[in-house]
Amino acid sequence: MLLCGLILLSLSAPVQAHRLQVFASADGNQIQGRAYFVGGHPASGIEIQLLDADGKQVAELSSDDDGRFRAQVSAVGDYRVVAKSGDGHRAEWPIAASELVGVFDDVTPTPAAAPAAGVSSPAVSVTSEAESPDRMRAAPPAPAASSLQDDEACIRAGADLDLTLSVAIERGFEQALEQAVEQSLEQAVEQALGHAVEQAVARQILPLREALAEAQAQASFRDLLGGLGYIAGLAGLGLWWTRRREQRHSVKDNSDG
């Protein structure tokens, strides 16, 4: 009975040795990965399905000779990569939405509307009262020269004030526009730079993540072999102990006889 169990466990080792594995990660607006068997051997020609969070198929493709694949996505969300082999093996790998955040963001700044090409100052118009026939017939005496000079000075002062206000308003609009554009550009550059750094770091650590996934798969296979050896050792120890007890009983019976 024990021997049959050991044989069955040993037969399951090759099945585990060819267990299908898959690894995937986001690269920009694409999801790339690799299908392989335990031990690192590439799984070429494997059916790869890309599913969204609702289980709807987004893409279907096959792995190349090195077991690699690449699919494009059009929105941020949780995805699931499913690898299937012809002999019924299946492996999955999740892609979190956080790996795609920022890829589809529009970082192009929208500048504020520019003011009109020329800002005209408020027009200062001096309207003269329409003279009625009665006033023409009874014209008042001409104003004194000093009164005319005072009126002209007031008009010039008002025109200068209007011009000063117009220039100040125009400069204020220009400064506000420049500040808005600078802030928009700084924000856009900061977002683009941050996203570029995240993508660069993700590309750099991608081989490490892939190697770690393969190492974990190999470690589980080694654990299986270690467990088989441990069981075989315990079984051998139990058989030896049982055999020794039988020999002791046999020697004792012979001595008593």
What does this structure look like?
Residues 1-17 form the signal peptide. The chain crosses the membrane at residues 224-242. Residues 112-128 have a biased composition (Low complexity). This is Carboxypeptidase regulatory-like domain-containing protein. The protein is an alpha+beta fold and 257 residues long. The chain has three helices and seven strands, in the order αβββββββαα. A four-stranded antiparallel beta sheet has the order 4-3-6-7, with no helix packed on it. 10% of the residues are buried.
Summarize it:
The protein is an alpha+beta fold and 257 residues long. The chain is built from 3 helices and 7 strands.
β-strand percent reads 15-25%
Q: Mind describing the biggest β-sheet?
A: 4 strands, antiparallel
Identify the overall geometry: rod-shaped
Order of helices and strands: HEEEEEEEHH
Query: Strands across the major sheet, in which order?
Result: 4-3-6-7
The total strand number stands at 7
The amount of helix comes to 40-55%
Radius of gyration: 44 Å
Distance between the termini: 34 Å
Content-based structural category: alpha+beta
- How many alpha or pi helices? 3
